[in-house]
Every structure is written in C-alpha cells, then in structure tokens.
C-alpha cells in the first residue's frame, strides 16, 4: 500500500466519485481508478461497489475510512514537526476558510505568511458548512478553520480575531434610495439571493426582522461564490461582507452600507494539542495586526 493510494481513496470518498476526485487532485480519471484498484488488490478487499458510473463504499471501505484519515494525519503531523536550517517551520498546513473571509483577512494573511515562511505549503479549502468546522478538525481534514462566529465547539479552541460589516448589494440599474448608509426600513421590496442556513444569514435575517422586513428569496444557492454572479444577472439583491461588497461595486453592482449596521465577528477554530509548528506560527501572525 502506498501513500498516494490512500490519498486518492479519500478523495473519492470526499468528492463522491472518481471524476470529481480526479478533478480535485488535478489528475486524469484513469490514474485515480488504477490507484484505487491497486489499493484494493493490496488490501485484498473491495472498497467500493461500482454501480453504473457511481461508486458506493462497501462495508470494508467504510471501515477503512477512519484508518486512512489517520494515516494522512500522521504524515502531515510528521512533516509539520520539521524546521529548516534557520529554525523556521516547513511542511504543509491545511486550512478551511468561510467564503466571506477569503478576501479579507485570509488572502492578505496568507501572503504575509508565505513571505515569512516560504517552506510551508498551504492548502486552503472552502468551508461550505460552518457547523461542520469542528468535525473537519476532529477528523484531521485541517488544523485551522476560519469561520464566522459564534460556532459550537466546546472541545476546541475558538478565538475571535475581528469582525465584518455587511452591506446591501443590488443588481446594476436597480432603483435604490440614494441614502448611504441605507436604513433597513427603507430597503426596496427586492427578492434576495441567499445561501442555506449559516451564521451570516441568521444575523441578516434577525436585522431584517427588526426592521419589519422579511427575507423573500429569489434564489437559494449552495455556493457563496455564486451569489454575486446571480446578483449581477438581475436575479435579486443580497447582503455581503464589506470586502466582497466593494468588489461587487467595482463590477457594476449598486452597493449601500446599512443603518443600523449589521456586524458579525469572525475568528479561528483549532485544537491546541495537535497544532504543528506551522499552525502555531500562522495563528501568531493572525493575532498580529499588520
């Protein structure tokens, strides 16, 4: 059994199929298929049922998921204990990031970190479900989660780093009052592009309710990166963190600050007991304003 086979196996599990796994790994589909077949031969069991073009874990495959994740966690942990000749961390650091935090603060932070620690490779993935952040750390998918707060994670460390103000974003040409900030009570009766349940959506709906406005969805999108294209296409308005709203304005959207402001804290989630030197260095930098 080889390490890359274990990595490909988990990619198929996490991405629900060979094609999506190959795309995520930036490999050809036959390469992943052959590796999975080789792993099954080495283990002497079938890990997947092949049903048409789909793949479903067998009982043996389900039993192997936990040990496979442990194997990769041990490898990443071993790499993370290394330092270079100057005593600086090296290896790999895995981080999951809420989409609303990718523009700020994470992009700037990653740039600073890479300048200071060039021998650390960062792997960033989108945190699609804020409630899943704690499980991602417990199961070894990543060391650090950047997320909106609050989050339920009594057995992990939650550290607030800052906050974002949320702004209204409207399609180009929308008849919007000139006031900026715009009182929520004067919000036009425009349907909104929203995502499924999230901390941000809860805060926004609470603010709208206090202004006697209700959320009338025009579209519910699974991925946050889809929200702005839908708004620019005229599907409806939305509410975005200020850094993303400013980007929307640069692309032609009509943007207004909100009165009263909608603010939401953000921070990091991690397990101090398993942080690598690279993870500790990243958190130290995250706590230090530039």
From TrEMBL:
<dbReference type="InterPro" id="IPR005119">
    <property type="entry name" value="LysR_subst-bd"/>
</dbReference>
<keyword id="KW-0805">Transcription regulation</keyword>
<dbReference type="InterPro" id="IPR036390">
    <property type="entry name" value="WH_DNA-bd_sf"/>
</dbReference>
<comment type="similarity">
    <text>Belongs to the LysR transcriptional regulatory family.</text>
</comment>
<feature type="domain" description="HTH lysR-type">
    <location>
        <begin position="1"/>
        <end position="58"/>
    </location>
</feature>
<dbReference type="GO" id="GO:0032993">
    <property type="term" value="C:protein-DNA complex"/>
</dbReference>
<dbReference type="InterPro" id="IPR000847">
    <property type="entry name" value="LysR_HTH_N"/>
</dbReference>
<dbReference type="InterPro" id="IPR036388">
    <property type="entry name" value="WH-like_DNA-bd_sf"/>
</dbReference>
<keyword id="KW-0238">DNA-binding</keyword>
<dbReference type="Pfam" id="PF00126">
    <property type="entry name" value="HTH_1"/>
</dbReference>
<protein>
    <submittedName>
        <fullName>LysR family transcriptional regulator</fullName>
    </submittedName>
</protein>
<dbReference type="GO" id="GO:0003700">
    <property type="term" value="F:DNA-binding transcription factor activity"/>
</dbReference>
<keyword id="KW-0804">Transcription</keyword>
<dbReference type="Pfam" id="PF03466">
    <property type="entry name" value="LysR_substrate"/>
</dbReference>
<dbReference type="GO" id="GO:0003677">
    <property type="term" value="F:DNA binding"/>
</dbReference>
């Amino acid at each position: 059994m080889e390490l890359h086979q274990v990595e490909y196996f988990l990619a198929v599990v996490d991405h629900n199929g060979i094609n999506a796994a190959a795309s995520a790994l930036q490999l050809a589909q036959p390469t992943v298929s052959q590796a999975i077949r080789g792993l099954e031969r080495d283990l002497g069991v079938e890990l997947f049922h092949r049903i048409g073009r789909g793949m479903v874990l067998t009982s043996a495959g389900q039993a192997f998921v936990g040990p496979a994740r442990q194997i990769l966690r041990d490898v990443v942990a071993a790499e993370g204990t290394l330092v270079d000749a100057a005593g600086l961390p090296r290896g790999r650091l895995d981080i999951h990031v809420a989409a609303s935090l990718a523009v700020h603060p994470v992009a700037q932070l990653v740039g600073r970190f890479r300048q200071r620690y060039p021998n650390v490779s960062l792997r960033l993935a989108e945190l699609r479900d804020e409630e899943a952040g704690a499980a991602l750390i417990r199961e070894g998918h990543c060391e650090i989660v950047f997320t909106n707060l609050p989050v339920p994670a009594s057995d992990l460390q939650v550290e607030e780093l800052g906050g974002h103000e949320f702004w209204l974003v409207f399609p180009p040409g929308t008849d919007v009052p000139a006031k900026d900030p715009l009182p929520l009570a004067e919000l036009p009766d425009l349907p909104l592009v929203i995502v499924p349940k999230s901390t941000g959506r809860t805060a926004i709906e609470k603010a709208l309710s206090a202004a006697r406005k209700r959320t009338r969805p025009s579209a519910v999108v699974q991925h946050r990166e889809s929200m702005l294209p839908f708004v620019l296409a005229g599907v409806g308005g939305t509410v975005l963190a200020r850094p993303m709203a400013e980007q929307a304005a640069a692309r032609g959207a009509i943007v207004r600050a909100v009165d009263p402001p909608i603010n939401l804290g953000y921070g990091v989630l991690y397990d101090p007991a398993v942080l690598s030197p690279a993870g500790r260095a990243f958190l130290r930098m995250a706590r230090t304003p530039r």
